[in-house]
Structures are given as structure tokens and as C-alpha cells.
Amino acid sequence: MNALSRNLYVCIMAGGKGERFWPLSRDGRPKQFLRIVGPHSMITETALRNRALVPPSRLLVVTTRAQARSVAHALPTIPRRNIIVEPCGRNTAPCIGLVSAMVARDNQDAVLAVVPADHVIDDTALYVQTIRDAAAMALREQALVTIGIEPQFPETGYGYIVAGRRIARRGPTKFSRVERFVEKPARARAEELIATGRALWNAGMFVFRVSDMLYSFWRYVPALHAALTRVLAAPKSLVPRMVADLYAHVHGISIDYAVMEKAKNVVVAHGPFRWDDVGSWSAVAGHWNRDGAGNVSRGEVAAVESSGCVVANECPGVVGLVGLEDVVVVRTRDALLVCPKSKAQDVKKLVQHLRNSRALRSYTQ
Amino acid sequence: MNALSRNLYVCIMAGGKGERFWPLSRDGRPKQFLRIVGPHSMITETALRNRALVPPSRLLVVTTRAQARSVAHALPTIPRRNIIVEPCGRNTAPCIGLVSAMVARDNQDAVLAVVPADHVIDDTALYVQTIRDAAAMALREQALVTIGIEPQFPETGYGYIVAGRRIARRGPTKFSRVERFVEKPARARAEELIATGRALWNAGMFVFRVSDMLYSFWRYVPALHAALTRVLAAPKSLVPRMVADLYAHVHGISIDYAVMEKAKNVVVAHGPFRWDDVGSWSAVAGHWNRDGAGNVSRGEVAAVESSGCVVANECPGVVGLVGLEDVVVVRTRDALLVCPKSKAQDVKKLVQHLRNSRALRSYTQ
User: Fold this and answer.
1) Distance between CA atoms of B2 and B101, rounded to whole angstroms?
2) FRET label pair with B270: which of A45, A246, B107, B125, CA 20 to 30 Å apart?
């Protein structure tokens, strides 16, 4: 375990756009920089959650050029060289390949955990235990471990992992082979999946030896592997330009599709903690305190004969509701959002609408 | 007509509380001081509407002590002595009695039109013609004229006047005897009333010779008449104290109940103009411009897949709606209201709730 501890790295993927959290999120301030649940921004909460796993020197962040400064500001203790800038978003496969290659150059024996910056996990101790067990599994079985979450309800906004044969435990965490990955299902399909008792939510978190991941890239996405190899073989001063060139030519592709669905050594860990990707304003209802009528709110709010509402009042002043059900209200200094909870996913349509208006574009920035 | 012109007075009743227009209306700024329809506040719009009828010297306002300064500010051209202060609200009968007595002291032949400060009338020319014709009718027939409005739909928020026998016209306006007054009816009753073709909305506007009104007070509310007589017989310096004493002891009673429903010489004028008392935020929908989806708004608003909403954005910044139907949103600098259009009347409950909260009370002031 000592060797494992020394070789464990955590990489936070922080490239999100977060249009669905308008008006709190703006072009330069996506979801991971917002304080949605807990006292800190989501990326800071994520970094704090991983503090027990790795020292700052082995905590990396992949982000965009536009957000690099905000990342450094949010995570003042991690070294600047640990902030890896992607020239543009190309989904998770190029991102994970690049980080794996960079870590491998420093440490051939590294085990890397890759986690999104903008998810909520309620129980840090259980999370830490799961990642430790997954790392041990990855190390001893040369497995690519993906983290699945015991589903609470038939959510249609998540992908699912159908677990196959149970395999030996490592520590308290359960592990299974993966029977198949399922993309975001329709409602009826989600209910079927839950009913099988073998489906897990795909949390988009992965734990693997970097050498195993690079082998899988070589095997399943050889062109990308070759490009990564060229980048890493180049003198350090040339790396940014070569990364830019790589990203200019590579197609966006997810790590699930590029590698995990094909590799034979994929294992799913049954994450026992509560997890939520908080995909929209309506999702915060599960994390804030409720009043007697099932409203959740932050800031000065007066609700009369209203129920099931989500109110984020983010600036001085009062929000008054009368006779309202299941509506989201978000009030910031210069903007206001009102929409039914069931339409919270469509806030991105509003952001598009604002972007397309010369007069209103500034409210997306 | 010349004698009529010289003897015509208009009194604007401006005592409203206007809780239903929170957060734009506050304790010191009720509905009549708000800009709801048109470029000016409702009381200023009302004064402008009456400019063609009377000079400023014959335009009076009855208001509360708290609002007297705001009235003077809103109506800078009328003499300060024309602003009559009621010590407290006692409904319309004491108010109309007091003004009638005060006008009668100056001019025994006066014809007085009493109109609320906070109603919307779309066609000023038709309104002016109706008041002129009503004044002629009052003068020649010694009638107490009440203004009825041809109803557009079975509104349950208004009282109704059932017209009886048609009587001779004066000018282009139709007049009828009054069969009876009907208080705010339930929906089914309102539909029946409309179906008769003889029901008019009670607009709360009256035109009469002050001597006729005072005779009716003497006949039907003699105690109030006696008190008014004492007040007006006193030296001017004592009037305010005597008015205070009168209001401290008199019961609140409406002019309809105290006089109009009893007097034999009551006549209703069929007002042909569009009229609305704009009783709540949902009522402004009839007066502002609609977008293609039936939303009405003021200020910077972006509505996506939304319809039938009423949005008043009263300060810099944007209001964004997504997937919302028939909701009222009012955004001011320090407060926000969100409620279904069907619950717009209940905004006063929210104001009560705020008043009862030590932390939030300031938002009603």
C-alpha cells in the first residue's frame, strides 16, 4: 500500500461549460467555479475531497486556456505546472490520454484517478476508500477501473453500467466485470435497468495504471496513441505547440466509447457513496435544506402557499413567491432566471437565445 | 353649457393601499403613484385625463396624510388647498360627503365628478364626453349619476349595476334608471348578469350636484350629514381638528350602500370607453404589448418557450424565462415577485407575510 500511495495521482477534469447554471454561470465562470453545494466552489470541494488521497504535487487539473487562471485561483496550493491546458474540448479520450502520457513520463508506475470537477459526493471518507480500493485493484489486476454508483432512482440524465460477474474484493469495496455500458436511457429503459439490480450509474470517474491506459490507447485508438507519443517525445518547449496541433486534428471521443467499451480488463467498482452530477438547478433540491412545504432556498426568500420550488437568491434583496409550484428562481445582481423545475435542462436554450441577441449577449459573459 | 362648465369640479380619490402591486408598490407608494399603464403614474394620468374638463383650480384630490406630499409632487399644477387630507380611510361615503360639503361652501351650484386615482381609461375623449353628458344630466334632472361600463367579460372582481328603464339622452351618452346594484358576484352569477345584456360594471365614478348629494346625505345618513354640517359651519382654522374628530367616530361605509342604493334619483350613464381598475399584476396584460406567444413585458426580458406571462423588469439587468406559462414576474432593485397569474390577487398575502417578519418587513416600506 505504501508503493501505491506514492504512485497515486489524481487528475480533476475541469472543462465544463455549465450553461445550465445561468445566470450564476457565465462564459468565464462555468459550473465548477460556482458554489452550488457546500461552502466552496465545486472544484475546490473536489480538490479538498482528494486531499486525503494525494499531496498537492500529485493533484493535476486539466482545463481550458480561458479557465486556467480561475483554476489556479480556486486551487492555490497546487503547483502551476500541474494545471494542464487543453487547447479546446475534445471529450474525455484525448484528455485522459494526454494526462496519462504526461504522468507516465514522470512515473512509469503511476496509478491515475481521473474525476470530474463538478460533481457532488456527500461522503468523503467512503469516496476516499473507494478510490484507494480501486487503485489497489488497478495495480494488482492491471484493470481499468470505472466507478459506478448504486442508483437511487431511474434517472434519464446519466449513462449506466451493467455489472457482470462479481470479482474478488479489494478492501471493503465490491468490484464486478462490466457486462455493458448503456448511454442515457429513456425513462422506461431506465426503470428496466434499475429493476435488474445490476445497473449502476456511470459517474465518469476512472482509476488505472497509466501504462495500462496507454496500452489500451495503442490497442484501440492507435492514431491517437501515436500522436500522444510524438508529443511526449518532443522537447518540453515544443509540447504546447504539439498539443495544439494534436487537438486541432483529433475528433472528440469519449473514453467510454474509445477504450472502456472495448478493453477486456475493465472492472467496475460499486461506489457506496451518494453521488450527483448536479446537472441543472433542479438537481440542487436534493442537497439544500427543505422547508415544510418542500421548497429549498438560499438567501432571503419568502414563500407563501408555494411548494417544491428551488430558489437561489444570490444578492441582497428579497425573493417573494405566491402560489407557485415546482419552479426554479435564480436571482443574481444583473439577471434573473425563472423556469419550471421540469425545464431546468432547457436553460441552455435561454443562454443560446441571449448569445444570439446583440443587446443581451453581455448577460452570458 | 357655459354655466355647467364654470360649475364643474372633479375630485380624484387617492387613498388606495395597492398591496397587490408589491414589490413596485410599498407602504408610502401605493398603486396610484406607480407607472402601470402609460408614461406617467396613474394619478398623473388621471389628472391629465380631466384637464379638458376643469382647470387646476377646480381639480381636487382627497388623500391620506402619508400620501399628501406625493400627491403634490405628482400634480404640481393644482393648488395645495385643493389637496384634501382624510385622517384615515372610511370608505367612500364620508369622503364624498366631506368633499361635497367643502365644494358647496365655495359654490352652491357646483356639479362634482368623483373619480378614483388608479383606474385605466383608454379613450380620454369618450371619457370627457361621458362626464360632460353626465354633468348635464345631473344638472337638469337633479340626478345622482353613476358611471357604468359596458362589460367585456364576466369579471368577478367588480360590482355590477343592473340598468332599468332607458331615459332621455343628454348628448351622445345613453342613460338608464338603476334597477339594482350587485356586489362582486361569483363566476356563474357574473355570467348570468352579462347574459341579461342589462348589467354594467360599477366603475366607482359619480357625477352629481353637490346640493343633491348633501340632500341625500341628510335623507339617508343624517348623522353623517349633521357632523359634516358642523364641520363646515366651523371657522376654517378649526376644520382639520373637526374632520379628525368626525373620522374618528364615523364608520366606514360606501357611497353605494349609504346613498346610491337608496336614493330615487339615481341614474346610470353607459360609459362607452374601455375601463379597467387594474386590480393586480395580471390585469396589466390587457394594456401592454404582447409578443407572438402572448407574453407582455416591460424592460429587458428574454422568453424562451414561454407564453401568457407578465414580466415587469423595473431595473437594469435581464429577466430570462424558460418553459413558463401564465406566470407574473416583477423585478425591482431590491425585490422580486414570482406568482401564477391566477394568484396575482394573493400578492397581498405575501405583503402580510413580509410585514410579520422582523427581518423582511423593510421590503414593504
Assistant:
1) 23
2) B107
Closest chain A C-alpha to B343 CA, distance in angstroms = 6
pTM of the entire predicted model: 0.88
Task: Say if residue A174's pLDDT is above 80.
Answer: yes
Whole-number average pLDDT of chain A: 94
Q: Within 13 Å, how many C-alpha atoms sit on residue A157's CB side? A: 13
Q: Which of A243, A276, A309 is where one domain is finished?
A: A276
B358 interfacial to chain A (CB closer than 8 Å): no
The pLDDT assigned to B216 comes to 97
Domains contained in chain B, number = 2
Contact B346 A302 (CB under 8 A): no
Give the pLDDT of residue B232.
86
The last residue of a domain, from among A208, A241, A276: A276
Mean pLDDT in residue range A109-134:
96
Whether residue B16 sits in one domain with residue B99: yes
Tens of pLDDT, residue by residue over A290-337, are: 999 999 999 999 999 999 999 999 999 999 999 999 999 999 999 999
A323 interaction partners in chain B (CB closer than 8 Å)? 339-340, 342-343, 346
| Whether residue A28 sits in one domain with residue A160 | yes
Residue-number span of the structural domain to which A77 is assigned: 2-276
* B120 and B236 part of one domain: yes
What is the average per-residue pLDDT within A231-236?
A: 87
- The single-letter code of the amino acid at B290 is R
Q: Residue A238 in 3-state DSSP?
A: helix
CATH number of the domain within which A152 lies: 3.90.550.10
Closest in B335, B339, B346 to A318, CB measured: B335
Q: Decide: helix, strand or coil at residue A203.
A: strand
